Amino acid sequence: MPRTSMPALSRRRFLASAAAITAGAVLAACGGSPTATDTPKPAAPAGTTSAATTGAAPSAASPSAATSAPAATQAPAATAAPTRAASSAPATTATGGTAASGTSSAGAVTLGSGMINGMMWDQIVAKAKGGTANWFLYGGSQTTNDYLDKYVIPTMKQQYDVTVKRTPVTDTVEAVNKVLAEKQAGKTTDGGVDLIWINGENFRTMAEANILLGGWARNLPNAKLIAWDEPNVRNDFGIAVNDREAPWSRAQFVFVYDSAKAPTPPKSFKALEEYLKANPGKFTYAAPPDFTGSVVVRHVLYETTGGWQQYGTSFNEQVYKEKSPAAWDYLNRIKPNLWQKGTTYPEAATKVDQLFADGEVTFTMSYSPTAGSVGIATGKYPKTTRTFYLDAGTIANTSYVTIPFNAKNKEAALVLANFLESPEAQIEKAKQTRSGDSTALDVGKLSEADRNALKAIPLDPATISNAELSMHALPELPAAYVDRIEKDWQANVLRK
């Protein structure tokens, strides 16, 4: 996500890494697999995006999974692009009265100290008691929702007397725009958003607008279990985290397919083009800016233009303009052989999931490597469901939780963020019966008991091991590329 993704999660909703790092560093750093998310994605109404429309459905900062069947329609259904407003309103103060909007607090950070903006951790926990944390996040993943509703929310109430209010969004940008609107209205305290599941361009938007609480993420007691020195952790789609968000999930993109219908799946886009000539209508992808649809397009860009390395650590207009037409050319070539002959695109990854579940297409895709296993376990997908990654590699990222500068319940949000990073919560989250995500923790820093608990989580034939996936991990592009690619897809593919 997530990035966005409510992102499915947007939703979404997961190993963000600057494109500047070397391929070897990426492979060494990406030790987990996840959901997305996008960046993080939220539950969206059934529907599709027509190739005749002027816009695409919103994306989520994180992961995806819904149950409503997609409405296959060719009628125009324009959707307004998410607003990414800017604001020049003055920053406000953070917990304990220390200015901390947008950048981390002054002074050295003591990893895991629990001292945040002048308050000891015991004081923060005491102040959070009896409070409410309003958590805005992609609502389209049922497994994530179940994990929160059945485990996180009751455990937070029992252990800390903190009420967690899960506020689902269809796209993480909804939460971002709410905070932006509050700042523009001069509401620098008592904001309505306490925590956001986020990554990618939504994080960048908040950082540039100076509406993030700073000086807290590395000081959470459980922050000592995070590999902060890894490029994919300290950078979020090329943007320095700078103590403004806490890792929650790792994600890595996989294709999900029915092995009974495609015994030898196409593991490159060149092979997919040939497959579609022989099997028209059996593949589609969600319309960007849906987080999962967007990452499909980024994979196409990587393969058709010679890899990710050339794009650098910040947006390069000359390189992008020279290279990107090859991606649009490919996507337009396969368009007539897509589902509905490419006249319409599902508005969200959840709709592609449902098409796959209904047998209309042979493939879906996810930022969660366990998506196939979860689909089988819930009875949604056939037992012949399997997953694969592209021969050229697969994009991985990290999604985070962040706290707005004007959050009303900062202490409750801090306690929740710390709990989400606990071994107990991360192990529960990793179970396929829950959200099926990879842990955001550095496994090497865990106790032997916790490492064994993670190893004990069953891995069935529909899930590829984290060890194998990490060997084929590719970095996300800097967030500025993501914005441009999503806009250009609409102009060069959707409307063609």
Q: Do you know the CATH architecture?
A: 3-Layer(aba) Sandwich
SS field, number of helical segments: 17
CATH superfamily: Periplasmic binding protein-like II
Whole-number radius of gyration?
21 Å
Please give the number of β-strands. 13
List keywords for this structure.
3-stranded antiparallel β-sheet; globular; 496 residues; D-Maltodextrin-Binding Protein, domain 2; alpha/beta; disordered N terminus
How does this structure look, described?
The strands form four sheets. Strands 2, 3, 4, 7, 12 and 13 form a six-stranded mixed sheet that branches. This protein has a three-stranded antiparallel sheet with strand order 10-8-11. The chain is built from 17 helices and 13 strands. The protein has one domain: Periplasmic binding protein-like II (D-Maltodextrin-Binding Protein, domain 2). By secondary structure, the chain is of the alpha/beta class. Strand 5 and strand 6 form a beta hairpin. Helix 2 packs across helix 13 and helix 8 crosses helix 10.
Give the SSE map.
Blueprint: H1 23-29, E1 48-50, H2 121-128, E2 132-138, H3 142-160, E3 163-169, H4 173-184, E4 195-198, H5 201-208, H6 231-234, E5 235-236, E6 239-240, E7 245-252, E8 254-258, H7 269-278, H8 291-305, H9 317-323, H10 325-334, E9 344-346, H11 349-357, E10 363-366, H12 371-377, E11 385-388, E12 394-402, H13 410-420, H14 423-430, H15 448-455, H16 466-470, E13 473-474, H17 479-494
Parallel strand pairs: 2-3, 2-4, 12-13
Antiparallel strand pairs: 1-9, 4-12, 5-6, 7-12, 8-10, 8-11
